[in-house]
Amino acid sequence: MVTRRKFIASTGVGLAGLTLSKFSIGAIFPAGEKYISNRPVPEKRNFVSKAVEAKITEVKAAINDPELAWLFENCFPNTLDTTVMHSMIDGKSDTFVITGDIRAMWLRDSSAQVWPYLPLVNEDPELKNLIAGVINRQVKCIQLDPYANAFMYGDEISGWKSDLTEMKPGLHERKWEIDSLCYPIRLAHGFWKTTGDTSIFDAEWQKAMELVYTTFIEQQRKENRGPYSFKRVTAWQTDTVPGNGYGNPVKPVGLICSTFRPADDATTYLYLVPSNFFAVQSLRHLAEISEKVTLNLEFAAKCHQLADEVETALNQYAVTTHLNYGKILAYEVDGYGNQLFMDDANVPSLLSLPYLGCMESTNEIYSNTRRFLLSHDNPWYFSGKAAKGIGSPHTLVDKIWPIALTMQALTSSQPEEIKSILQTLKTTHAGKGFMHESFNKDNPDDYTRNWFAWANTLFGELILKVYLEHPEILKQFY
Question: For 320-333, how does the pLDDT look when each residue is reduced to its tens digit (9 = 90+)?
């Protein structure tokens, strides 16, 4: 079985000479030198940001624990060090971002990987240009195929070329996930709000956003099942789609179908609740940009209308009364009254809704949902000798995801909870100095993915948040 977590190009070589041996994973250190940086040497880094380097020095000085400081130094710049390839194409900045050990660019991952650097772009014009390049590259990807989740750098033929869907040169994988179109909007909106720069919102960007809107409308499936279907010949159940590639039946109620989850696993019920919340937020961001920048009031009105429709349907179909937790959110629904109660480690998740700006953390329904998610009533919450936290069907039972742990801390207002999670992350990296995709609840040495840049950069984002909001934790932590 070849899965996303194990797929590496047969050459073993990534873009621009990126290889798994480029940086030292799990280096053996001389006595007394345990916490030497695991970053590539400066001349082998893909991109160096003066602002990022200065922030690393600043924050490390505020961390009392040497191992935690070492983890931050390794993880926060990992996306820039190892996964970006920047160039100028036709006079525009262009940045291709691989996920790490998979030589492809996910719209979700690439957005999330560079997001934590946004607060620093006004101090570093080159970093700003790099992130503008990510936005420009995402526009090209969406225009190539708004239903695809992952892309090749050029017109290479993917290892998934035999999938029974409309594969094209340049696509790595064609799994329809709502969040794939939401993340680029979040990044572009955040870039604009941080910099005031509107140059990214050119005609090509606007054309891509029209495709986003059209795709969302198609996947409401009010008149038919739409143009997208997907099947894969595989023994891995969640890697293909039931219903002859269209998924299980849904009742058209205004929600948007997502054939796959952010973990790249097929949904059980097509109305994936956290991704629909993310779509509401993204549509409102699109409307704001259309009103204030591109001055397309007609498109803004359409986005507002769709956002309101999806939000109304979420309130009607996604909220239910649980036997033990009161009113909570289901993870997936189908419009017929069927609901799936769980959460997945990948973002968007129910746990992550405040982080994405979709819901206040003080909202009663979110608070009740959070209590459910972080309990053994959530079938994908695991507790063992090494850690407790949320996992994913993508990595099967008993595997906890650092992304979920990090998200738990990012959405927490409780210093003791944050401190506890930092301790868990510190003790479960298997001595490698980086975050992994997942690890066994009883044995952190049993993990998946050595090189997963999103998990690394998100951990760096958490440390920055703690540094700004709870610096006493970093001083007390040891």
Answer: 999 999 999 999 99
Domain that holds residue 146: 50-476
Tell me, yes or no, whether 393 lies in a domain: yes
pTM value surpassing 0.85: yes
Q: Convert the pLDDT of each residue in 180-213 to its tens digit.
A: 999 999 999 999 999 999 999 999 999 999 999 9
Pairing of strands 339-340, 388-390: unpaired
pLDDT in tens, 73-122: 999 999 999 999 999 999 999 999 999 999 999 999 999 999 999 999 99
Question: Residue 82 in 3-state DSSP?
Answer: helix
- Looking at the structure of the chain, the number of domains it has is 1
Please report, for residues 35, 38, 282, 322, 412, the alpha-carbon distance to residue 71 in angstroms, rounded to integers and kept in the order given: 9, 9, 32, 39, 21
Q: How far apart are the first and last CA of the chain?
A: 42
The HSE-up count of residue 255 (CA atoms within 13 Å, CB side) is: 27
CA-based max dimension of the chain: 68
**Number of alpha carbons in the 13 Å side-chain half-sphere of residue 370:** 23
Q: Is residue 161 part of a domain?
A: yes
Question: How far apart are alpha carbons 84 and 101 in whole angstroms?
Answer: 13
Distance CA 276, CA 283 (A): 10
- Residue type present at position 253: V
For 379, half-sphere exposure in the C-beta direction (CA atoms, 13 angstrom radius) is: 8
Q: How far apart (Å, rounded) are the C-alpha atoms in residues 259 and 149?
A: 11
